[in-house]
Amino acid sequence: MIFVTGGTGLVGSHILMRLILENKKFKALKRSTSSTSICKKVFKFYNLSDKFSQINWVEGDINDIPFLEEEIRECNFIIHAAAMVSFNPRDISIMNKVNIEGTANIVNVALDNNNIKKIAYVSSIATLAREKKSKIINESNYFENTGTESNYAISKFYAEQEVWRASAEGVDVVIVNPSVILGPGDWSKGSSQMFEKSYNGLSFYTEGVTGFVDVLDVSKITIDLLFSEIVNERFIVSSENLSYKHFFEKLAIEFGQSAPKFKASKFLSDIVWRIEMIRCFFTKSNPLITKETAISSRRKSYFSNEKIKNALGYKFIKINSSIKKYCKFFIDDLD
Questions:
Q1: Sign of torsion, CA 185 189 194 196?
Q2: Domain 2-184+212-242+302-318 coded CATH 3.30.450.90
Q3: How is the chain split into domains, by residue range?
Q4: In contact, 315 and 150? CB cutoff 8 Å
Q5: Contact (Cβ atoms closer than 8 angstroms) between residue 294 and residue 215
Q6: What are the tens digits of pLDDT across the range 262-292?
Q7: What is the rounded (10 degree) CA torsion for 327, 307, 6, 227?
């Protein structure tokens, strides 16, 4: 039996879908206030709506230790995909509670349960240091807080340390570090909102470069690693490195829109996030751009996927294929 957290999110929904298709026994954690709309939409996109009822949901909270102890008691494996992603400074406290404290709770309960054989943790490339001497970032690039790292990155780094603690205390673990994840779900949130923004038209692009990966790759690799003999390792999960300019040009072509024409300079983006900060102070709304996202959008980061390809003999989905597929999903979802 597998205990899965984060099943209502983009990655978690795809993990649940794959577990059902592979006939794996599992239970999926959801809060009583959480919506399953993203998960339902994911199953619908793949014409698997009839499989959604097979999800064994359990309602509770990742910070409720007695609940976790009871639900994990009969489990042998854990896939921990729950996380809060935010670049809004107002969310630091709750994000740390979910990402760091929540992960610590999962680890502590797993350590107290002699049945747990392995934990698979879905982390992020945000926990990898940007190499100064070499352009290519691999799994040996250990996190450095340079003062420009996002609070999200810091929270995921400390969450990883909790997972490594499980390894040190006798529970096998694997960690996946996905790059920017492409997939269907709530088009107004997370990385999926890039499709919505492109569909509505973008005029500006940034000079940044990063890795992109299909959510189907992330879910499959996470499950494959969980049931492999590989233990106490982490893997970058990324298909290709693309500039944001190139990526949004591809989206624009699929949507029949004009590609972004104007480069957003550092000067311009720094003005914009400051204006947003002032606007949100008075309106109490969430900022469209923050200091953290402005910095991130200018970084040129190239990620190596050689380790996971060699470990599993894995062949990634091409990003062009992902873009075409998810642009079609987005358009179909408008009907």
A1: positive
A2: no
A3: 2-184+212-242+302-318
A4: no
A5: no
A6: 676 665 566 654 665 666 656 666 655 655 5
A7: 120
